[in-house]
Design goal:
Elements: H1 2-8, E1 12-13, E2 17-21, H2 24-39, E3 46-49, H3 50-56, E4 66-70, E5 75-76, H4 78-91, E6 102-107, E7 111-115, E8 118-122, E9 125-127, H5 133-139, E10 150-157, E11 168-171, E12 181-184, E13 190-193, E14 197-198, H6 209-222, E15 231-239, E16 248-252, E17 257-261, H7 271-284, H8 314-319, E18 326-328, E19 333-334, H9 335-342, H10 351-358, H11 371-382
Parallel strand pairs: 2-11, 9-17
Antiparallel strand pairs: 1-5, 2-4, 3-4, 6-7, 7-8, 10-13, 10-14, 10-15, 12-13, 16-17, 18-19
């Protein structure tokens, strides 16, 4: 993914991570984690004593016993990652059908998927339905796992908090969760979270007073100075947790069916490896695959802070002055960026889609200044 991101322009940053032990018990657990990393081929992890840890992260709260350094960790833009892969697929000949809920599947010599937007036929079927992956699996007569949504609430701090940490600050994971971390983002903020609460609803992405209060308390313990910084946004996401510890990657060649279910938050960084596994599963099922996929890679617009944005590029503004006209001052998004997104291979369907493509409405004012103009632009572009 790191190599692909560099080629197509997905914002990334190699920050490295420190997995911090806050007790003697956690300090002992680092040895097993380091051994597992070595077994998986990652030999660059290193133990860091408490004195060095505080030299490298002076804003860290008191009480840390030491850490495990993970130099290969980094941060990535998840929205641009998904959009880049979807753009490459569509330019390569795939048809993208959005808002098409699958209500039933007939399996025979071909699959017929009944959806809210009509029927779709296919010779091979890949189930990557996230929170609904077990439901699709059941439609094919298989009940090998059950998704139990795990809500994760997160807090985004103002950009002025970014200088507090230099690495991703990880907790020692438990059997259930990787725990609450403090991490920089490619957009220049600091992220605190997530919580991990199993819930019944697959649609409830609301935050809770209890969840946010627990995060603020944990953040004040990990990096006390966070308490002095403003919160830009809060949000919640649902992970497709199951009764199993690992991803539910299952190939059924006799059915021409591959399942990639139960993928939790690590699925973004694991996406390329998951795709390779799915590809091999489809080949085993009889699908003839082309070895040459070159020529379709897109070049994505930069919405991160790891390289110059359009408003900082005089040559781009000279070609189109709209790239010099800022419409979102919190995130320095220009009118040219918004217009380019609306002309792209997969244009945004609404304001929320445009936000993920450009960062409008993501800043300190949360759209108070720019939302009216952005909505007017969407009306001009789609009307």
């Amino acid at each position: 993914l790191r190599e692909y991101a560099h080629r197509v322009g997905i914002p990334t940053a190699p920050t490295g991570a420190l997995m911090i032990a806050w007790s003697e018990e956690q300090l002992g657990a680092l040895s097993a984690i380091e051994s597992a990393a070595i077994e998986n081929g990652h030999r660059d992890t290193r133990r860091v004593e408490a004195e060095e840890l505080y030299e490298r992260e002076p804003a860290l709260g008191p009480g840390a016993h030491g850490a495990l350094e993970i130099p290969g960790e980094g941060i990535v833009c998840p929205w641009t990652t998904a959009l880049a892969l979807a753009t490459e697929a569509t330019t390569g000949g795939c048809r993208l059908v959005l808002n098409a809920r699958v209500t039933g599947i007939e399996a025979g010599t071909r699959f017929e998927l009944r959806t809210s937007r009509g029927s779709i036929e296919a010779e091979y079927l890949v189930n990557a339905a996230g929170l609904r992956s077990d439901e699709l699996d059941a439609m094919l007569g298989r009940r090998e796992f059950t998704v139990r949504p795990r809500r994760g609430e997160l807090i985004v701090f103002d950009k002025l908090a970014r200088s507090l940490v230099g690495h991703i600050l990880l907790p020692v994971p438990t059997e259930k969760t990787k725990g609450v971390l403090v991490a920089p983002t490619v957009y220049g903020n600091l992220l605190l979270g997530p919580t991990a609460d199993d819930i019944d609803s697959r649609d409830d992405r609301s935050t809770t007073a209890e969840g946010l209060a627990s995060l603020l308390a944990e953040g004040a313990r990990i990096v006390p100075a966070l308490a002095d910084h403003e919160v830009t946004a809060t949000f919640a996401g649902l992970r497709a947790a199951t009764e199993h510890r690992d991803y539910q990657l299952r190939a059924h060649p006799e059915q021409r069916y591959v399942c990639a279910g139960g993928i939790r938050s690590t699925g973004v960084s694991g996406s390329m490896a998951i795709a390779e596994w799915v590809r091999d599963g489809l080949a085993d099922a009889g699908l003839e695959l082309s070895a040459d996929a070159s020529g379709n890679e897109p070049r994505m617009p930069n919405i991160g802070e790891t390289s110059p944005r359009p408003f900082e590029r005089p040559e781009l503004i000279a070609e189109d002055p709209e790239f010099g006209r800022v419409v979102c001052f919190c995130e320095r998004v220009t009118r040219g960026e918004a217009e380019a997104a609306m002309r792209s291979a997969i244009p945004p369907a609404d304001v929320d889609g445009l936000r993920r493509r450009t960062r409008v409405l993501m800043g300190r004012c949360q759209g108070f200044f720019c939302e009216a103009e952005i909505r007017a632009m969407l009306g001009e572009g789609h009307g």
